[in-house]
Specification:
The structure holds two protein chains of two kinds. Chain A is α+β, with helices and mostly antiparallel strands. Chain A contains ten helices and 18 strands. In chain B, helix 1 packs parallel to helix 2 and helix 3 runs parallel beside helix 5.
């Protein structure tokens, strides 16, 4: 028997809690991990439970109920614990409606997903054909059902499914390429295309030489640009702003990026892997503008932060946020495409770089946006719009706000990216041309 | 709690054709509490159980887990794993080597058991951390503080007869900080870890640590100067010693990474299976990983494949000495596991991980290390850091740092940055202190990401003629 969120809410109210949210979930994920052109392991996960938010006045707590037979016991224990805590003055209740949701739109072929290893081998074969010697990566099919009930009357059911393949291809030890295929419909899933792109980058990256320090105009691949967008968007949570840890603090209405940049969180977008019908307070999903033509329009909110900032909730509340209570988080980020063809962006670079992927992005100062990150996989030298060589061992040492202000062009072409740690939220990203990217490297 | 579901899972897997099987049954309780600028933001309790099973069928491996502890469910996930393994047949079959299973029971001792600590006591401890910061009177507009305790009970069983019962309590006190003076700001972060009971707070002293951080950040804002780029000597405090040990020694000797199994996520390594014995640093460098360090953040006595833990010399006398292995990597490279298999929980496969990684202390006092420096930097701790996925090109930026002139510590240096290769770092070490300190850490690897508890540290290290800016 699954954990009933409706029953949890009813029992919690009877015990005396004032506000209750119960997100009953069933997760059934499949994964194939591979390396050296072979499958290493096939993983399968099943998780059942309910994530529960409870408020006693302004005393707040979250807990998990995994066993329906112990729901009463967990709630009674929670009540005792809550009485030993204290009030949160920032808490302003949960969303009171209206609640009108669409219908879950899961591709039945993803629900019945089969033949994972076949897609992996399709990607590997495409990479090899493009010049790769060896490939590693993962294929993941996510399938989760949610049954949300709140004490304010929200009752929503959602089913979310996606499939993604991440492949890193090597043509030689120091020459690699990485690409992603991600979709919410099996017919849109293109593992072969991802394999081909990873293989092509790997083949082009052969014989890299140590890069040189300096400022370079750079074309950013959607995978790498997605990482920068991820870093930017994570600062747009009102809770991060309230914690004093955001570079976007006090900047609403101000220029925070070049006029090319229009950025939103859009969980209502069905093609996005972060698609959902409602947030964890039951607020219906909608497109939330964050940056329009380079100007910061607002933050991501739950009901409490929205009241504090005197705006409407944006449908961004999360029971699993790492910061705060029902911490607002992006779910499905989209950066509006530009007007250039991919090749036009390259032709705009006289002396520069094409950076395809990065990792290990770390801040020196979050509030200022000072950070560095390490490009990996293909790092290409561009002269007069043409790739003329391959580099290795460089670092981007930058300021995130300044970098977004130096975006000088975006491609019409966009890709959905989501990658291990670096692009933590599914993101639709174009290619970007950024002027004067600061490159450093190890001195010896 | 039905621990015997583990035995049932293994038996069922063998009946269905697995040549080998393991099961892990887990009972956990995780309590967390956080303060955001003095406001109690989040109190969270997660109690749950689960079972994970890993099997080999015809040389192919599969893993499955469930949080539903019922026989029918376990039977289904085992059947699913068997089918998945058969569907992903390998060209080169996996073999985990010959291991005789042991029946053991171990636990990390708790003087004050975590389970007996009430919410009021937890809140008081968290409040004390915040008051230690605010009582400095310094402007600290960003203060996110948390105390987390995790208590895991695990039963591990294999088809070779291993039966390992473990009880693992861990305590964490962490902080993300932002200091401000006028329009200037500084960021700080600490993560203190203790394997054991609530008595760990006495050992970790989070209040003292965080008050010191606030003072250091403000002193840097008020008096700090940038470094004139160039070559100079560097005195690394134990936190910097630790991060270098973890990033540019511990990670590159992970055998699964060397074999390419992590290539698309945590990356590869500059080390190959043929690198053992190659010089990577000066003669005085011994970097070890030792799970058995009592109260260390990565403490364990048996790893998550039931192998007895021991100290591993990763770099010894400046040479690459030993790789970290689980059974899979050891079997592929024709050696034996050295108990580096770890998992964050029942629902993840065990992979090669560090535990407590540090430079082995030697003979120099702090004063002796210092007096030998004519012109240099003392980097006590770090903020921004990163390293290439082959673990060769790394950067550490000082959070607390000072100028050194003629063997004397001078005023604070603001954001001195060291950007060097692994060989350049370890080759520049000319003297190793006799002191010792371990800082906690959360190490990321695997897919889905497994953030695992570790510690890192060691003594002060002196590096000669190293480029800083």
């Amino acid at each position: 028997m699954d954990v009933s969120s409706q029953e949890i809410v009813a029992r919690a109210l009877k015990l005396g809690f004032d506000d209750v949210i119960a997100d009953g979930y069933v997760v059934s994920n499949l994964q194939v991990r591979f390396s050296n052109n072979e499958v290493d392991i096939a993983n399968q996960w099943r998780e059942y439970g309910a994530r529960v938010f409870l408020a006693l006045g302004k005393r707040l707590m979250t807990t998990e109920i995994h066993d329906p037979s112990k729901a009463g016991e967990v709630l009674e224990t929670t009540l005792k614990i809550l009485k030993g805590t204290r009030e949160n003055p920032d808490y302003q209740g949960i969303y009171e409606g209206p609640f009108r949701y669409g219908t879950p739109m899961v591709d039945p072929k993803l629900r019945e997903f089969d033949g994972a290893a076949g897609y992996v081998h399709e990607a590997i074969a495409a990479a090899q054909k493009a010049g790769a010697a060896s490939c590693a990566g993962t294929l993941m099919r996510r399938l989760e059902a949610h049954d949300l009930n709140t004490s304010e009357g929200a009752q929503g059911r959602d089913e979310r499914a996606s499939v993604e393949l991440s492949i890193r291809a090597f043509s030689e030890r120091d020459a690699s390429g990485h690409a992603i295929a991600a979709a919410t419909r099996l017919s849109d899933f293109t593992p072969g295309e991802a394999g081909r792109k990873a293989g092509e980058i790997a083949a082009l990256a052969k014989g890299p030489r140590a890069g040189e320090e300096g400022r370079y105009d750079a074309v950013l691949d959607p995978l790498l640009f997605g990482s920068f967008i991820d870093a930017f968007t994570s600062m747009a949570s009102a809770m991060v702003v309230m914690a004093g840890l955001s570079m976007l603090q006090d900047k609403v209405g101000q220029k925070v990026a070049s006029p090319e940049v229009t950025l939103a969180d859009d969980p209502a977008q069905a093609a996005g892997m972060g698609h959902r019908l409602f947030d964890d307070e039951g607020v219906p999903s909608r497109r939330v503008p964050l940056v329009e033509a380079g100007v910061l329009r607002g933050y991501l909110h739950n009901t409490s932060t929205a009241k504090k900032f005197r705006v409407e909730p944006t449908g961004s509340a999360s029971l699993r946020a790492p910061l705060g209570f029902l911490g607002p988080m992006p779910s499905n980020v989209t950066l509006q495409p530009g007007e250039y063809g991919r090749e036009e962006l390259f032709s705009g670079v006289k002396e520069g770089l094409y950076l395809t992927n990065t990792w290990y992005t770390r801040y020196q100062n979050r509030v200022k946006g000072d950070f560095s990150t390490i490009p990996r996989d293909g790092i290409f030298r561009i002269k007069d719009g043409e790739i003329v060589g391959s580099w290795k061992d460089v670092r981007v040492t930058e300021n995130l706000l300044d970098l977004f202000k130096r975006i000088d062009g975006l491609s019409e072409e966009r890709h959905q990216v989501h990658w291990w740690g670096e692009v933590s939220v599914p993101t639709f990203a174009p290619y970007a041309l950024v002027r004067g990217v600061n490159i450093t490297r190890a001195k010896e | 709690m039905d621990w015997e579901l583990g035995d049932f899972a293994v038996d069922h897997a063998l009946q269905r054709g697995a040549s080998w099987a393991e099961a892990r049954v887990e009972d956990r309780r995780i309590d967390s509490m956080s303060l955001r600028n003095g406001i109690l933001d989040n109190v969270s309790v997660d109690e749950g159980q689960g079972l994970g099973v890993r099997i080999l069928v015809d040389g192919s491996m599969a893993f499955a887990s469930t949080s539903r502890m019922e026989k029918g469910e376990v039977r289904e996930i085992v059947d699913g794993a068997i089918a998945a393994a058969r569907a992903t047949r390998r060209t080169h079959g996996l073999n985990l080597g010959e291991v005789r299973g042991q029946e053991v029971r171990w636990e990390a001792p708790q003087a004050q058991p975590l389970a007996e600590v009430g919410v009021e006591e937890r809140l008081a401890a968290l409040q004390a951390m915040d008051e230690a910061i605010t009582s400095t009177g310094l402007e600290m507009p960003g203060r996110v503080l948390e105390i987390i305790t995790r208590l895991f009970e695990r039963y591990y069983v294999t088809s070779e007869g291993a039966r390992v019962r473990a009880r693992i309590p861990r305590l964490f006190a962490g902080a993300t900080l932002q200091a401000k003076q006028g329009t200037e700001t500084e960021s700080g972060f600490r993560w203190l870890t203790y394997t054991g009971g609530w008595e760990g707070l006495e050992a970790l002293k989070p209040g003292e640590v965080l008050a010191h951080e606030a003072e250091v950040m403000h002193r840097a804002l008020k008096e700090g100067h940038r470094v004139t780029p160039g070559r100079m000597d560097l005195l690394c405090g134990p936190q910097v010693t630790g991060i270098a040990s973890h990033e540019s020694c511990g990670h590159p000797v992970e055998a699964d990474r060397i074999l390419g199994r992590e290539a698309s996520q945590a990356g590869t390594s500059f080390i190959t299976p043929q690198s053992l014995g190659e010089r990577i640093g000066s003669d005085v460098v011994n970097v070890v990983d030792d799970p058995t360090v009592e109260h260390g953040g990565g403490f364990y006595l048996y790893d998550d494949e039931g192998t007895k833990a021991r100290r591993r010399y990763l770099y010894k006398e400046g040479r690459i000495h030993e790789l970290l292995h689980n059974r899979e990597s050891a079997s592929i490279l024709g050696t034996e596991t050295n108990a580096a298999a770890r998992t964050v929980g029942f629902n993840r496969e065990p992979i090669v991980r560090m535990a407590n990684t540090f430079v082995e202390p030697k003979d120099h006092t702090f004063e002796e290390l210092l007096e030998g420096i004519h012109h240099g930097i003392y980097m006590v701790s770090f903020t921004e850091w990163n390293i290439s996925d082959t673990r060769w090109n790394q950067k550490y930026t000082g959070r607390e740092a000072y100028f050194i002139e003629d063997g004397e510590i001078q005023g604070p240096a603001r954001g001195p940055s060291l950007e060097v290769t692994t060989r350049a770092f370890w080759s520049a070490v000319d003297a190793v202190g006799k002191d010792f300190y371990l800082e906690g850490g959360l190490c990321g690897k695997g897919d889905p990401l497994q953030g695992i508890d570790v510690s890192m540290g060691g003594p002060h290290l002196r590096l000669r003629n190293i480029p800083l800016r």
